[in-house]
């Protein structure tokens, strides 16, 4: 229960914030959010999980609501508070502005830290070995086992500079703190990797960038992360973040959590990757066996090559759609399944033998001293091999499984592409279409408490879509939809009179161009949101030379640069227009005169184009369910609200929204979409 002492701490923190922050506005919604977070996390709802979903519109002050209440509750219960965001912009705002600000007012002392994945840190041992090996003419280790192509002279010089800077403490070992990052292929060989890391057994453990950061995290009360890192860490054994059952999670921008999770619970491998991985495993085995004087395990490369050749011959006969072959309802064709089984048995056997050999190698190193120039690279290469073999076996295993007919199936597919050496490579994929069970097992059932929040969390006025995506059961959790602090009834939401329907692509595109020239004010700040890059480019070609102000088109400059140029022009009293896609429909904060007109070219319905989406849509249809009503319509509602949300960012903002999609008035679902919008003044042009 929420104790009087804890209640007083939170209240006093909030009073200090109100009285000291210069631009603070009293918001009843913020008070309500603080109260509900406090009651939920403290177990004041006895028949409910400590999970709260909060839709907190722009201007609510949700960040300070969850920080001031969450920090106090976490500290009182001796738990860690993990704040996770979906993008770098919010992460930076939390680290550089919001959390330091919260420290001023919070009635309890706390420390905070940013957590990053292992791969963002250099492995100093690997970096030293790379530099030292390159400095000698004859290395005892066959470098081809680590590199497809040896590093070039300029790359080695770069690595030597990195080593020098790290030794002189000019560089902290994080890739994000480099002015220019090394090539991806080189960084992969020198970064931290859980398969190659020897942790406390490493002579550089005390000076390791990753473990130094880990120590900082153990001291921190508040840990700032992102959804990708949280999901990756929990899916691979929870080795970076504090234990889930010792943590309270706050997922800001929680509407992104489902799509992020889908990508993390997917598997892939490729025919060429299998070939190189088996050869690497044999080469590393050779080196270990020579040194330990063991018999070489049987790694039959020809057998694997023959199976892969049979597979490639079979795949050539398939009818690929834009280089993708999607298995119906995730059921792999039997002939492909048969070859996959042969590969699975052979590679699993190799994996078992390799893991046993690696264990004996580790035992050998405990009693024998081996030259570092060969021992360390073998350790690194053998770790890579284990990682690669494991990923191959996992994918092949998924291809052989039969899904539960009562559950949404896996999506399984094959993509073909041509490599630089002109060889045809086939990539095999397997992905879940429903990750709700994973999230429940990893987070919902274990965490001390969870707050999921976003400005747009519900769809069509309901949390049903979110619950299905994330595996949350409505009766077991708390839900809160807060009203916006802004007045929307003075904002016109104009459904433009359009002859063409967005499905008539050519006619609609021409009409969009002509309507924009009539409706856009060259003296104002405008944002035009497109659902298609092709349509955006076509319209830009038609209108750019006829506009009397600057036009910025997404892709011509980085997003940040476009926004800066736009605001500079507005400060000078000049008009500016931005053409953007989905990324401009979310997270863009153009206050006041920077934006007074948002144009939405058409409703953003998600067409099932990805293999995962297609498999799920086909499954729903097979169950006599409607994927349009269950997926496309709720998602379109959320995207429409997000797009409209670019206009009013403060209490004093004004402007209008225009949409060029007559389906809002001609289709049965139009009323549902309009009803879910804030209380705009809906104007239907006659």
UniProtKB/TrEMBL annotation:
The keyword Iron applies. It is an enzyme of class 5 (isomerase). Binds 1 [4Fe-4S] cluster. Residues 16-331 form the Helicase ATP-binding domain. One of its GO terms (biological process) is SOS response. It catalyses: ATP + H2O = ADP + phosphate + H(+). Its cofactor is [4Fe-4S] cluster. Gene3D superfamilies: P-loop containing nucleotide triphosphate hydrolases. One of its GO terms (molecular function) is DNA/RNA helicase activity. Keywords: 4Fe-4S, ATP-binding, DNA-binding, Helicase, Hydrolase, Iron, Iron-sulfur, Isomerase, Metal-binding, Nucleotide-binding. Belongs to the helicase family. DinG subfamily. Type 1 sub-subfamily. This is ATP-dependent DNA helicase DinG. It comes from Candidatus Thioglobus autotrophicus.
